[in-house]
Amino acid sequence: MTKITFVAASGERIETQASAGSTVMETAIMNAVPGIVAECGGACTCATCHVYIDPDWEAVVGGPSAMEEDMLDFAFDVKSSSRLSCQIKVKDNLDGLVVHVPSRQG
Ligand code: FES
After folding, report:
1. For a pocket test of ligand 1, which of 29, 39, 70, 88 has the largest count of ligand atoms closer than 8 A to its C-beta?
2. What is residue 48's predicted lDDT score, i.e. its pLDDT?
3. Which residues line ligand 1 (CB under 6 A)?
4. If you average pLDDT over residues 80-85, what whole number do you get?
5. Does any domain span residue 65?
6. What is the pLDDT of residues 10-32, one digit of tens each?
7. Residue 106 belongs to some domain of the structure
8. Ligand 1 center to residue 50 CA distance, Å?
9. CATH number of the domain to which 71 belongs
10. How many domains does the chain have?
11. 27, 51, 77, 95: which one has the fewest Cβ atoms less than 10 Å from its Cβ?
12. What is the distance in A from the centroid of ligand 1 to the CA of 42?
């Protein structure tokens, strides 16, 4: 299992265990992380699974694909650390990942 910590807009930290092969969004939904809506179910067509990657993890996670970048245009308060969590596959090298949930989606 891969440990992923979600930091809600309120500052609450939610520590989760993610399965390899799932996505960061699926992990958030399974753990009822507040602020992750994921309307499209992971098809990269809604931008309501927007998160900010913690600065310590940006280089490991990497940037968005061109398709994801286009969808991010519809997200609220996009920053250089923004990603759509449904597009981040859980892998062993993400053990300890910290992501921040925006104050609202789209
Ligand atoms: Fe819709 Fe990620 S769940 S874009």
Report:
1. 39
2. 98
3. 25, 38-40, 42-49, 71, 84, 86
4. 98
5. yes
6. 999 999 999 999 999 999 999 99
7. no
8. 8
9. 3.10.20.30
10. 1
11. 77
12. 4
